[in-house]
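Bumping my old thread because nobody answered last time. Still need a sequence for this structure:
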């Protein structure tokens, strides 16, 4: 199984596989996880009450960090979308407005895990050096 170095890149890959392509199941729901653990079922209230506004909820981080992505699933990823409205971000940080660097990708070392990646939408959210890395690997940066 693939190991990601950049958690935020892994989240974008999960967004594609779980919430867009629906190839990675079951779909994660922070509300469902909190309810299952007896912590309530309102992620926004949970985050507010536990000082987790504008932070990744630890239960969500633990889930996504431990989530295994097979080489087969990763080989199917041809496109990624960097957008502050991604569902995976809402599941991680229900009190987040997209106005800070919480989900910024800082490394593209994990691109080797995505052999068929051809396009990254929203690349303007990447540091220019990272955009250059994409382009050097033949990935269209839109």
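Sorry it took so long. Here it is:
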């Amino acid at each position: 199984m693939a190991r990601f170095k950049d958690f935020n890149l892994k989240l974008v890959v999960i967004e594609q596989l779980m919430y867009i392509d629906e190839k990675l199941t079951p779909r994660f729901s922070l509300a469902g996880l909190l309810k299952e653990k007896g912590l309530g079922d309102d992620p926004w209230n949970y985050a507010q009450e536990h000082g987790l506004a504008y932070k990744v909820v630890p239960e969500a981080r633990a889930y996504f960090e431990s989530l295994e992505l097979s080489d087969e699933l990763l080989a199917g990823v041809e496109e990624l979308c960097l957008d502050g409205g991604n569902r995976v971000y809402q599941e991680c940080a229900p009190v987040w407005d997209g106005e800070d660097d919480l989900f910024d990708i800082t490394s593209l070392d994990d691109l080797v895990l995505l052999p068929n990646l051809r396009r990254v939408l929203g690349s303007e959210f990447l540091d220019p050096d990272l955009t250059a890395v994409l382009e050097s690997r033949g990935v269209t940066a839109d």
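The two ends are 29 Å apart (CA to CA). Let me know if any region looks off to you.
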